[in-house]
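Incident log entry.

Two folding requests arrived from the same account within the same minute. Monitoring flagged them as a possible duplicate submission, but the sequences differ. Recording both here for audit purposes.

Request one:
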Amino acid sequence: MADHGLDLGEGLIDDSTPAFRDRRRQAQVREQLSAALAGRYRIERELGQGGMATVYLARDLKHNRDVAIKVLRADIAATIGAERFLREIQLAAKLTHPHILPLYDSGEADGALYFVMPNVEGHSLRERLDQTRQLPVEEAVRVTSEVAGALDYAHRHGVVHRDIKPENIMLHDGHAMVADFGIGKALGEVEGEGVTKAGMSVGTPAYMSPEQAAGETVDGRSDVYSLGCVLYEMLVGEHDLPSIRRELAESLEEITTTFSYRVTSGVFLDAYLGDAEVARLYRELYHEDHTWRVP
């Protein structure tokens, strides 16, 4: 009988399992990437994987610095296409803001689509929430204000993020930085052309606006909606949608005249305000003595 396993000294490992095949495929991608980027970047190790991409720690040989290289999944890369991907990345690379994680480089290497970012010393908001579950009100408001400022800047330059969530908010040196600008639009343009079939939809359901979930065209207000969901999670410690709908609707009864929001279907909001106004209102409504100004 044929032996369908590998003995690595710790028993027989079944090489026919999906997990094994996935690890083997990831190893092949890393080897191909290392060969394609040789002379420019030295791949050190894998930092993590998501539904869309794998992130590697690498050394920028020209500038002698550590960077993070995000490589799109092969099926996602094939659906988006190199031309569309690089076009959207170029737009995102032009964004220069203290609360937007910059893009250093991008390209295609042996069929793999990648972009290069700083290797941020710190952690994501998701990691912070995993540790503490809830944030102090003052910290939650500061993070929200900084992200709102980044979104306002991006929206004024014609870029909508489409996937604001704790995983895409980095906490560095006490401040928030928004990552992954540009990818959402590239995915949004091809949604329905194979991206969903490949197992990847644009946005994250727990933070997705109703119009985005319905597949409608979105603008900056969709990002503001997602940021509101993130703020709720920072304060309450959960992102359960029924809870958000119930408690947010109750809270809005008190502050709706100040925020000029309309409650839709008894739950979420259609915002008439822009991102900069939201950031300003957070500051104006929040006292230094940790109390809220309620009209």
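Request two (distinct sequence, not a duplicate):
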Amino acid sequence: MFEQLDQLTEPLQGMLGSPWLWLVILLVSGLDALLPFMPSETTVVLVAVLIGPDLPLLALLAGVAAAGALAGDCLGYAVGRYAGPRAVARLLRESAAGPGTPGPGHGSNGMPPCSSSPAASCPAAG
């Protein structure tokens, strides 16, 4: 059984010397802020297990993962800062002209006014 596990980990351990591995870790941990389905924690833990007790490589892994997470958070903030107001304005504009807008004789919440019913049973009261 351990022979099969060794066969699975040999190609992965061969990638530890590749600079592409560090780029993948940076991208996966950065995209985790925008795309929640990215397996950043799993990627970092897998690489840490493959690195083993090599402290300089573990420090490099922690630095690359932290830099990717910081870059992803900054990117998410920038997207929200610049696209957020336009998206909210567009949603408000569409909801004001959309099919769910209240017509004449309706209150601001889209429900008919409660002038003829008692206040206790009026859903718009209160």
